[in-house]
Amino acid sequence: MSETRTEPYFSAGETPAGAAHDEGERATSRRRRRRNRLIGALVVLFVLLAIAAVVSIVWQPQPAPPPERAPAAQAPAAAPAAAQPEPPRYPVAPTQAQQPPLDMSDATLLAGLATVFGDGALSAYLERSNVVRRIVATVDNVPRRTAPPAQWPLKPAAGSPATRTEDGRIVLAEANGLRYAPYVRILESMDTARFVELYRRHYPLFEQAYRDLGYPAGGFNDRAVQAIDVLLATPALPGPLRLTQPKVFLQYADPDVERLPAGQKLMLRIGPENAKRVRAKLLELRAAITDPALAAVPR
């Protein structure tokens, strides 16, 4: 007798028993895969969050450190007190006389000098511009090595120095003193009392001109006394004085003589007889401008 096999078939709404078992396994597998994917995503998320946290901690701006306290500023050391100028040794009391402006004082000084020197002899030799400034500059230059003639209040002596030859060398001739004889006579004609009166009356002008030379403390009368002292200290040298002419101008052959102050070299140049007469007048003038009465305020 033959066996009849019936093939399974699916009717609507029903699942065969074997098919139901397979479908359950597949559903379980799908759930497991979804769970694994979720766990992986969470792990990645936590890792990203952790990295972000680390980065945020490492890179977040740190609070600026408090500024270092600057060391307390130390008070600057007190500057040494400026040396106070010494008071003048030979002061001249201030005058109440009305003064012209220094640069317009020539007419006043020239008129005054005409009363000091006799016979009007001075006018032929006197430079008539910047009289006070020239006198002050020349007095200031007496103790120096040079005294530029352009600043002299008197015109230079005419002619050239008188020389002669002795043993093949140039020497200053005795006749050279004749060139300075007119100046010595003018000096001797000076009325010292009138000169000091004029000097005192217009001393503010002399003081201003001296300050303009770069002496802010003033004290021109002290400088005038110093200049006279330099002239009086001129050494007495046996003549004739030897000269040399390295270029254009004559010089003293002895280096020690050439290094003397300008005023002393002039005293040697005018000759011993003239120097003796000048010395006498200088002593008279020095006594007058160092007289303590000059420092007393006139009444």
Can you walk me through this structure?
This protein is mainly alpha-helical and 299 residues long. It has a domain at 102-295. The chain is 45% helix and 4% strand. It contains ten helices and four strands. The protein has helices at 17-59, 106-116, 131-141, 181-188, 192-201, 203-212, 220-232, 255-258, 262-269, 272-289; strands at 163-166, 169-172, 243-244, 251-252. The strands form two sheets. Strands 1-2 form a two-stranded antiparallel sheet. It has a two-stranded antiparallel ribbon with strand order 3-4. Strand 3 and strand 4 form a beta hairpin. Helix 2 packs antiparallel against helix 5 (192-201), helix 3 (131-141) crosses helix 6 (203-212) and helix 7 (220-232) runs antiparallel to helix 10 (272-289). The longest helix has 43 residues, at 17-59.
Write out key terms for the chains shown:
disordered N terminus, two-stranded antiparallel sheet, two-stranded antiparallel ribbon, 299 residues, mainly alpha, 4% strand, globular, 10 helices
